[in-house]
Amino acid sequence: MTDLDRIRNFSIVAHIDHGKSTLADRLIQLTGTVAARDMKAQMLDSMDIERERGITIKANTVRIEYPAKDGKTYILNLIDTPGHVDFAYEVSRSMRAVEGSLLVVDASQGVEAQTLANVYQALDADHEIVPVLNKVDLPAAEPERVKQQIEDVIGIDASQAIQISAKSGLGIPDVLEAIVTRLPAPKGNRNAPLKAMLVDSWYDSYLGVVVLIRVIDGVVRKGDRIKMMQTGAVYGVDKLAVLKPQMVDIAELGPGEIGIWSGSIKQVRDTRVGDTITNEKKGCETPLPGFKPAQPVVFCGLFPVDANDFEALRDAIEKLQLNDASFSSEMETSAALGFGFRCGFLGLLHLEVIRDRLEREYDLDLITTAPSVVYKIHMRDGTMQELHNPADMPDLTFVDHIEEPRIKATIMVPDEYLGDVLKLCQDRRGIQIELTYAGTRAMVVYDLPLNEVVFDFYDRLKSVTKGYASFDYQITGYREDHLVKMSILVNDEPVDALSMMVHRDRAEARGRMMCEKLKDLIPRHMFKIPIQAAIGGRVIARETLSALRKDVTAKCYGGDATRKRKLLDKQKAGKKKMRQFGKVEIPQTAFIAALKMDS
């Protein structure tokens, strides 16, 4: 059992690529937590995708023992959180589990959008924040300017900011001292009933579900019967350990400590992030505030390219769901693509990561349909239903109005690209909320519809600003707008995989673009094929794919024109009959290309 005043719990807050995981590596290395021969870069990032992309997807934790200059040995619990907006809820729970944060800012780039979003979460959780300027050994570093920027934009005192280089190890001892001297110790009562917060959970093939907890009050011991307050499930504690990245068994966890336990739990679903854990018999009365179940925001269909891989895809999705409770799926069938799954994700990065993992870890080839968001459809009889797939849109005569999700987007951009960014946001039906300056960089806050952002907004933003803009968003709620379902018809047959929800004012441009694109992608047949975009029964755009045909008049030389006419009419009648019974084969590649909207 450790004294409370010798424990420090903290997390690292930073924008993507500002050196968060590298700093964690140095802290682990300098304190000798991991032997030098076992040390590797991005120690806490276990997935291949995390290492490749240089991002943290799953929050990870490590317990470090540090002998400080005052002669005492402190226990430091570090939670390395994801920086990306898709995992904001997970980050908010991790923030509630610790008392302080290191705010890492790249001394050459300054404050970015995600730095802001995550620092506000830390301030909401009443954290003590220690600013750290990383990469000060770069020629482009401007520590004084960045200090000023932290004070102007975030509004916290940066005069005592620690200057480090996480790559070379410069200034790391100062960071460790600052954690001990400037961050507060946790509070808690050892004799009160057990109250602990579930910070994270994952699946281990030997232990079942492993649960990471932060004890607030009371003590957890091996062999206890404990209860989850939100789900009501009761489990026995079979194993209790702390992570020094490897598991080290311990007898008990007291107040202020962070550790893991397992107890033959079968599904990650049963352990919800943010839940409160207490004793089965003499439990605490009230759960910890702020719990909410994870809600998928973006939906898309995943179909195997080869229909025989459907069973393999089902197994792969079930295995992934063991590890990721925020990813949901249900079966769906499509006339064009066969059997597949409609999956829900926390955001676009989450979608990409899951798709990459399915393709890589389970060796599958997948087609992803266009991502769509959840719409709320208010019916004339006063009921409300959620629409996940545009193909399931009910008859418009029964619909009163449709609401779509809106987001509050924060974009940080250098001055010279501001005009392009404003134009991009206006094109996407954005409403400007504020525009402020921090040095030479503008910070724009926009209210945007989420369905305009999920397509290709981020790629467009990066290309119009040559990669210098940073973007972060949070969902603000639903608002009514004039939305319609646009169907694509090929040879008068609707193609369900290509139907989408669009705003009425932009439907014609979107429809025309889609038809032109499909005209280039669908191979020509022996008969003429109309490609149409329609809203309800009204066609708003059309392209015609001309037929392949034999030159039937080649054998006529001279003579009356009626001879040629007779042969052409005969051919025309044949084509007409052929079109009636003809089936248009749309190749898989055409689907994949059509769903990648570019311009």
Characteristics of this structure?
single chain, 599 residues, alpha+beta, eight-stranded antiparallel β-sheet, six-stranded mixed β-sheet, 26% helix
Helix content range: 25-40%
User: Which sheet architecture does the biggest sheet show?
Assistant: 8 strands, antiparallel
Secondary-structure-derived class: alpha+beta
How many individual helices?
Answer: 13
In words, what does this structure look like?
The structure is a single chain. The protein has 599 residues and is α+β, with helices and mostly antiparallel strands. It has 13 helices and 32 strands. The strands form 6 sheets. Strands 11-10-16-7-8-15-12-13 form an 8-stranded antiparallel β-sheet, covered by helices on one side. A 6-stranded mixed β-sheet has the order 2-3-1-4-5-6, with helices on both faces. Strands 22, 23, 24, 25, 26 and 27 form a 6-stranded antiparallel β-sheet that branches. The longest helix is centred in the last third of the chain and has 21 residues, at 561-581. The model has no long low-confidence stretch (mean pLDDT 82).
In short:
This protein has 13 helices and 32 strands. With 599 residues, it is an alpha+beta fold.
Write the layout of secondary structure elements.
Blueprint: E1 7-14, H1 20-30, H2 48-53, E2 60-67, E3 73-80, H3 88-96, E4 100-106, H4 113-124, E5 128-134, H5 143-153, E6 162-163, H6 172-182, E7 195-204, E8 208-217, E9 220-221, E10 225-228, E11 234-236, E12 239-244, E13 246-249, E14 252-253, E15 258-262, E16 276-279, E17 298-304, H7 310-323, E18 328-334, E19 338-345, H8 348-361, E20 366-368, E21 372-373, E22 375-379, E23 384-387, E24 399-414, H9 418-427, E25 431-438, E26 441-449, H10 450-464, E27 470-481, E28 483-490, E29 493-494, E30 500-503, H11 507-521, E31 529-535, E32 538-545, H12 561-581, H13 588-595
Helix pairs in contact: 11-13
